Amino acid sequence: MLKLVDIRKTFNPGTVNEKKALNGLNLTLKEGDFVTVIGGNGAGKSTMLNAIAGVWPVDEGEILIDGINVTKLSEHKRAKYLGRVFQDPMTGTAATMEIEENMALAARRGLRRTLKSGINEAERERYKEKLKILDLGLEDRLTAKVGLLSGGQRQALTLLMATLTKPKVLLLDEHTAALDPKTAAKVLTATDKIIERDHLTAIMITHNMKDAIAHGNRLIMMHEGRIIYDVEGEEKKKLHVSDLLSKFEQASGGEFANDRMMLN
Amino acid sequence: MNITSLINSLPGACAQGLIWGIMAIGVYITYKILDLADLTVDGTMCTGGAVCVMLLMAGFPVPLALAGAFGAGMLAGLATGIFHTVMGIPAILAGILSQLGLYSINLRIMGSKANQAISVDKYNLLVSLRYIKNVAFYKNTIFVAVVFIVVIVALLYWFFGTELGCAIRATGSNPNMSRAQGINTNVSKIIGLMLSNGIVALSSGLYAQYQGFADVNMGRGAIVIGLAAVIIGDVLLGKFTKNFASKLAAVAAGAIVYYLVLQVVLWLGLNTNDLKLLSALVVAVFLALPYMKKQYFQKNVSKGGGSRA
């Protein structure tokens, strides 16, 4: 469903700030794979998602989504294949627009924007049903401005928008990291529910190793711009946090298991 | 200080305010919806008038002349849009470049003259200084300008409710989200700039007819007047304007208030030469208000913030 072939990306090449963010990254996802991604700060996790989404062009390598080579496609053109939820709850929604308007924008992802009405009655009913799944009471606030919602509500709405039309790949960039634990758990549950219901192919970055083990059917660990550990199925289910920590240390000689990882 | 002279001047100020209100609606599209400060309008506020006057002099009827003005404004917006999106020039600078370039273009349009007059006696104009008093109501410039505003607000209300219009609003609200939802934000910005400058040029076409001439300097500082109208409308009527159409109407009302206040300060004896300074200061104060409010509020929090931290 998704294939990354030898992706390389260097930021600020030729300067003191040069940073090899992706360094020969290879990854193949089967249809229905739900991969959790862990790794230290600067390992290239978010960079990988941004490369897939086309936020900037990669230096080398190829990106194929469902067999289509999207390496040269601009961000908005790739959007029709992708659903994205970001770390910052402010990023995924338009604050000055209404909940239903945001959803209507998402429902038209990949379609030509015409002079037809931006939203119609039938859609409103459909959105109401969809919002009920979140269990946040948003179904009664269709015309509320998104800027009035809490971070958790906005993140849940973004998740719904990302999956409103079935994406070929769902990209979740630490989408619960900015939320309080209770809200984070709620959003994670909704994520699981939607991915299972729609049989989505998904990549979820997380800093929480327990979550990384508990969710999805496959887990990858990144370090210095490439994948250093890839495990799936039964083997993944048997993993413990301590196993991952020792893997980290093996890979990086100890410096990897930083404070932020330990806290989780 | 004769009060009747003030009262006599008010209908004219109102008509002027309405025509500039159309211009301010154009500014609203870029400044509020797209979140861009577009300085092209200082140029287009002359281009529209120049095109309109020259077309009228060449024998075209008023509707065609105004359509020509609208089209010329859209081209100016297209130029700024290309500077900004394709060439990556910051929006403010892109607008300044277009504005400077338009100065030469405007002179060319007017046959290398700094101004071109069009007499209301010789031509059948739609609006004029003379159509304020003692004319049938449907010929009255105030009525005509109000009709223009109602039609423009209605059209914009429809447009920004369409799929394309929603995409443009989303682009101004959150460009990252827009791209993630498959919106080409560059196209959105270009369409917004074209629409905005088209409306400004249309207003310019009306204004040239109103004052009876087009002048190469008629757009100088237009952006400040436009912003003043947007801000005054928001400050005075913001509480009552919930939907988009009423917000646009508030902008037009803001322009009328601006011109009425102007008339009053002139009547109070302010030197006409000092007007632009006054306008700039008024707009600066209103733009600063939200920021200063925040600063003041934050100071309060830090003083007594122990319990909150």
Automatic annotation (TrEMBL), chain A:
Alphabetical list of PROSITE patterns matching this protein: ABC_TRANSPORTER_1, ABC_TRANSPORTER_2
Source taxon at top rank: Bacteria
SMART domains assigned: AAA (SM00382)
Subcellular locations according to the entry: Cell membrane
UniProt KW keywords: ATP-binding, Cell membrane, Lyase, Membrane, Nucleotide-binding, Transport
Entry's Gene Ontology molecular function annotations: ATP binding; lyase activity
Domain called ABC transporter: residue spans: 2-249
Membrane topology: Peripheral membrane protein
The UniProt record lists the keyword Nucleotidyltransferase: no
InterPro entries with a match to the protein in the record: AAA+_ATPase, ABC_transporter-like_ATP-bd, ABC_transporter-like_CS, ABC_transporter_ATP-bind, P-loop_NTPase
UniProt name for this protein: ABC transporter ATP-binding protein
Organism (species): Jingyaoa shaoxingensis
Lineage: Bacteria, Bacillati, Bacillota, Clostridia, Lachnospirales
From TrEMBL, chain B:
Membrane topology: Multi-pass membrane protein
This protein's record includes keyword Lipoprotein: no
Swiss-Prot/TrEMBL keywords: Cell membrane, Membrane, Transmembrane, Transmembrane helix
CDD domains: TM_PBP1_branched-chain-AA_like
Statement: the UniProt record of this protein carries the keyword Cell membrane: yes
Coiled coil: none
Source superkingdom: Bacteria
Subcellular location: Cell membrane
Name by which UniProt lists this protein: ABC transporter permease
